[in-house]
Amino acid sequence: MDNQDYDERQVIEQVSSRLRDRFPDREPAAVDAVSAEVVHEFANARIKNYVGPLAEHRARDVLKHSTASELAS
């Protein structure tokens, strides 16, 4: 994927889908919100090829170390 083929919405959906499978005990909306927020943090990355894996890793850490109530606020 080069930078001009980058579609943030598609990356968010891919990250969200994998993380919803990995965290079935979390509310899907919370997983989606964390995924979107983290992917968006990489919006200005010069090289977009690694946004998905980097965002997934960071979002996984957020979900792993946050309680449901923390994610809801």
General description of the model:
It is a single chain. The model has no long low-confidence stretch (mean pLDDT 91). The protein has one domain (3-72). It is elongated. The protein has four helices and no strands. Helix content is 66%, strand content 0%. Helix 1 (8-22) packs across helix 2 (28-41), helix 1 (8-22) packs parallel to helix 3 and helix 2 packs across helix 3. It has 73 residues and is mainly α.
In a few lines, what is going on in this structure?
The chain has 73 residues and is mostly helical. It is 66% helix and 0% strand.
Structural classification: mainly alpha
Number of helices: 4
Measured on Cα atoms, how large is the radius of gyration?
12 Å
Mean pLDDT: 91
- SSE order, one letter for each helix or strand: HHHH
What percent of the residues sit in helical stretches (DSSP H or I)?
Answer: 55-70%
Shape: elongated
